[in-house]
Amino acid sequence: MTPPQRRRRYPKEEPPEPPKAGSAPEGQDDPRDPGRLYVLTGGAASGDRAALDLVTLIVARADAPPPATQPEQSALLRLCKAPLSVAEISAYLNLPFSVVTVLLTELLAAELVQARAPIVRQAIADRSLLEAVMHGLQKL
């Protein structure tokens, strides 16, 4: 025998609809909004960008951002106290790579950041260095 099923006196409230993919909560700007990205970059053309790739390291030259910088540029300067790649900056700020390169171009022109090539390591170690290490270990 199965137990009787209970019915609710008041119907259950329907859960609110989940937000659509890519939409921001009310009162917040969507970071991928094309209008917002256009304002961030000032409508800069693609030819106005510095030659940066995803692995270029960026280091801030100043300890604190100047008061006249945009909020995104201030956040970028605070992030880059230690060297970060352009890809990491893009991920941390949740901005597309192209927008980050435009912001970095402005900061490079103002000499607030410094761009460094990534450190390339040799595939094969120097033989003389390996021999020196081996002899040093044998002397121990």
TrEMBL record:
It holds the Pfam family DUF742. Residues 1-10 have a biased composition (Basic residues). InterPro entries: DUF742, WH_DNA-bd_sf. Residues 1-40 are annotated as: Disordered. This is DUF742 domain-containing protein. It comes from Streptomyces dengpaensis.
